[in-house]
Amino acid sequence: MTGGPASGDRSAPIDAAGRLGDVDPPPPVGLAADGLPFTHLTHPYRKMATQGAFPAPTTGMEPKMNEQGLFIRANETLHGVIRQVRPEQMT
Amino acid sequence: MNLYTYEDACVPGVSNGDAKQPSNDAARVDLLGEHPQDDYSRYSDAADAAVRALADPSRIVHISYGDFPASDYLRDVTIQRGLSAYDTAKSIGADTALPADLVQGLWSMIVPIAEQLREFGVFGPRVEVPEDAPLQDRLLGLTGRQP
């Protein structure tokens, strides 16, 4: 595939895999491979966590916002990026 | 982008404690019509509103992979959407700087589980970043991204 931001062609469409032009595809974290929301991000970890495989996480660096605030911050940030996607790139 | 929309579309129902979402088939439905930006905004705003209205983050919600406290669900989707914001911005050549408070929050959420997620293939190999680098760069390196 040609075009895309790396080549200066901003009009390249997104292909069937969701890739833009000739830009490298993003890492898999944002893609739910089986269509389940967030499954591949969390499912194996969840399964093991519920089996007691991992201790309760602590970082010593607690976020300034709670989970609700952080979700909204993340979602609005993503929304802000989406607003910059050109209409022809959404096909 | 439709996947992002679908993820937002799930948030109100999950947050409300609804039964498991009809994930696979629903995710294949095109939620974006002739005005995709408007449609995306509608789902995104509804997701934000649902999370704002969540009175008890400890309530159990039903996800396709099990039942968990809403706060855990929100953590997972926050990680997903925060990193997707960076990935998408990079893909379209937009500014990739994330808000500082979001970076801090993602860092705190991801550090404890980063290696486990890496084992499962969620993150690629860690990219070494100097300890005195900006926190976003360290976050990207931690999640297998080249700053």
Account of the protein in words:
The complex is a heterodimer of chains A (91) and B (147). Chain A is mainly alpha-helical. In chain A, 31% of the residues lie in helices and 0% in strands. The model of chain A is unreliable at 1-63 (pLDDT under 50). By secondary structure, chain B is mainly alpha-helical. Chain B is built from 7 helices and 2 strands, in the order H-H-H-E-E-H-H-H-H. Chain B has a two-stranded antiparallel ribbon with strand order 1-2. The longest helix of chain B has 23 residues, at 70-92. The model of chain B has no long low-confidence stretch (mean pLDDT 89). At the A-B interface, helix 1 and helix 2 of A face helix 1, helix 2, helix 3, helix 4 and helix 5 of B.
What is the gist of this entry?
With 91 residues, chain A is mostly helical. Helix content of chain A is 31%, strand content 0%.
Largest interface: A-B, 62 and 74 residues
Assembly of the depicted chains: heterodimer
Q: Summarize model confidence as the mean pLDDT of chain B.
A: 89
Number of domains of chain A: 1
What is the N-to-C succession of helices and strands of chain B? HHHEEHHHH
Helical stretch tally of chain B: 7
CA-based gyration radius of chain A: 18 Å
Q: Give a short account of the largest sheet of chain A.
A: none
- Run of helices and strands of chain A: HH
Between the first and last Cα atoms of chain A, what is the distance in angstroms?
16 Å
- β-strand percent of chain A reads under 5%
Topology diagram in text:
The complex is a heterodimer of chains A (91) and B (147).
Chain A: H1 39-50, H2 67-82
Chain B: H1 2-15, H2 23-27, H3 36-52, E1 60-63, E2 66-69, H4 70-92, H5 100-110, H6 114-119, H7 135-142
Antiparallel strand pairs in B: 1-2
Helix pairs in contact in B: 1-3, 4-5
